[in-house]
Specification:
This protein is of the alpha/beta class. The protein has a single domain, classed as Sugar-phosphate isomerase, RpiB/LacA/LacB (Ribose 5-phosphate Isomerase B, Chain: A, 3-Layer(aba) Sandwich). It is built from six helices and five strands. The two termini are 29 Å apart.
Length: 148
């Protein structure tokens, strides 16, 4: 299950992502926004991060104008590894090397086709484990020591 969230700047792209996920029969939950009316991105980043953190959803996709603000908010939650992704190749590395569980996409910088390619690569890549897991273990230690 994928948690989807967008502010007004990512709303149109979110609707296209939903169409793609539906065509591929990939389960998702849409946590808003549901219009292009101005809203604040932290609301939706928090909703998605909580769904992934609680394991109600396996992954999250956040969409806003740039992707950056959403990334900052999502990374405030223990266990969330969020990254702004801008091309299909980096989506493979994000998942394979860092087991990124939330991606953020910038609606002002990506076409629908580019966003779909990113999602396809991210979903289709397996985490490598091994030395990469050792690094994630280090991140867990850092979170435990610094996120009070």
């Amino acid at each position: 299950m994928i948690a989807l969230g967008a502010d007004h700047g990512g709303y149109k792209l979110k609707e296209e992502v939903k169409r793609y996920l539906g065509e591929k029969q990939i389960k998702y939950i849409d946590l808003g926004t549901f219009t292009e009316e101005r809203t604040d991105y932290p609301i939706f980043a928090e909703k998605v991060a909580k769904k992934v953190q609680s394991k109600e959803c396996d992954k999250g996709i956040l969409l806003c104008r740039s992707g950056y603000g959403m990334t900052v908010v999502a990374n405030k939650f223990r266990g969330i590894r969020a990254a702004s992704i801008y091309n299909a190749e980096s989506a493979k590395f994000a998942k394979g090397d860092d087991d990124i569980n939330v991606i953020t996409l910038g609606g002002d910088y990506l076409t629908v086709n580019e966003a779909i390619c990113i999602i396809r690569n991210w979903l289709g890549t397996e985490f490598k484990g091994g030395r990469y897991q050792e690094r994630l273990d280090m991140i867990d230690r850092i979170e435990n020591e610094n996120m009070k």
